[in-house]
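Sequence decides. Consider this:

===
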Amino acid sequence: AAQDKAASLEESVKQRDERIAQLQADLAAARTAKEATEKKSEEESAALTAELDKARESTRAKQAEMDAVLTQLDDAKSQLERSQSTWKREKEDLELSLEQARSAQAGLGEKVLALSKASSAMREILEGFRGQVRSDMTELSSSLQGNKKFMLQSIRAQSKLLSTTMKKYKKEMSLRRKYFNLVQELRGNIRVFCRCRPMLPIDAHKKTKECVSFPDEGQIVVAGTKRTAKYEFDKVFAPGSTQEQVFKETKWLVQSCMDGYNVCIFAYGQTGTGKTYTMEGSPDDRGVNYRALHELFRIRDERKDEYAYKISVSMMEIYNETIRDLLDSKGGKKDHKIHKGPNGMYVDGLTEFEVDSDQDVIDAMKKGQSNRSTGVTNMNEHSSRSHMLLSVKVVGHNVAAGITYYGKLHLIDLAGSERVGKSGATGQRLKEAQAINKSLSALGNVIEALQQKSSHVPYRNSKLTYLLADSLGGHAKTLMFINTSPTESDSGETFCSLEFATRVGKVELGKASKTTSRAGSSRKKTPKKTSK
């Protein structure tokens, strides 16, 4: 029995131990669950706290938006109150305007009624005028029928008179050309025009002042630092003169070319005095060259019923005593030679372009100018380093008279004279300056020999003077532009230029002659010359 009891107790103890172990396991599981629950609770608490903070922030933002909306609502309320006040005033104004319009409408009705009555009266007057006009037209028609024969006779008489007048006009035009050429010859074959350029910004930079004045027509006075002198020429153009004014005094000489004369116009002077501007001008204000060709075209069109003209141009430059063809498409590198023929001086192998319009001339001049030699010196930023010659040949045939006229027009832009020390030329520029000054000095020697009527005139001393031999030697009509500077710093060169021009103006040459040939006569290789 004791063993059974002990076994029973041991079983009880064993069960109790198992129960304790079970309880301990349940306790551990409970503790684990508790910890998990506490952790989850903490996480949920943190999430709830974050959501609460977010909700509080959202609430504050909503409150701010509400405050802003309330503020806008208050502003809108104030604006509405002001608008209501404005609308009320406008309503009152409109009601007042409406009342005034109604009053005006009543007065307008009265005016319309008065105008209607006046209109009826005007209709009656108009009907009366219409009746009078119809009566006058009937009377006029009868009168015209009666005078028709007389009017036809008058028209025939006027036509005959017009025909007679045209014949007299053509005769007078012929006489005018004759007398014009005679006047030109009486004035002297070489005419001298002086043109003074205006003061330029570069002159102010050099701090030099103006030293020229123009006391009377045809006069210029130069007041230098050491002396003052007055000069007189055929025409003097002050700095304010225009290209049009200059050519107005020149174009009548150009006309002689169309009548078979050899005409030469050249510009001489110190570098930077406007020679190229005088002869060529700018695209907006053309110079003598373009205007001369335009004048030739004008005369050609004016005489088209009597004459058939052919006009051609060539361009060359004399650079370092070498003649270059500026219109040569190959670059004009060949040195052309000057020859003396029965019809005067000419250059062999030059390119000639026949021109028929202003645009043809512009195209030819652009090509020639692009090939011309220019450079920079202390005296001129774009100094011409060569003598440029534009030669125009004109052949005009008078069909009725059977006479052909051969005219030449030389338009020459001489390179500027300059003192080597003052221009700052070195190297190639120095060589160019020396060649320019040598040819201009030769030109001075030729003028001096002509003035003194020397038996020998040194035309061959330079290619420039040799080419101009027939223009300076009595068979041509020649005009020289002497271009000068107005500044005191250039007064030394100005004195030299004007004194040279004075000598040129004193050269006495024989009468100019024109070149013609008559149809049916035996043509020579060159047309004969007949003196005027």
The chain has a mean pLDDT of 83. The longest strand covers residues 307-319. The CA atoms of residues 81 and 217 lie 85 Å apart. The chain has twelve helices and 20 strands.
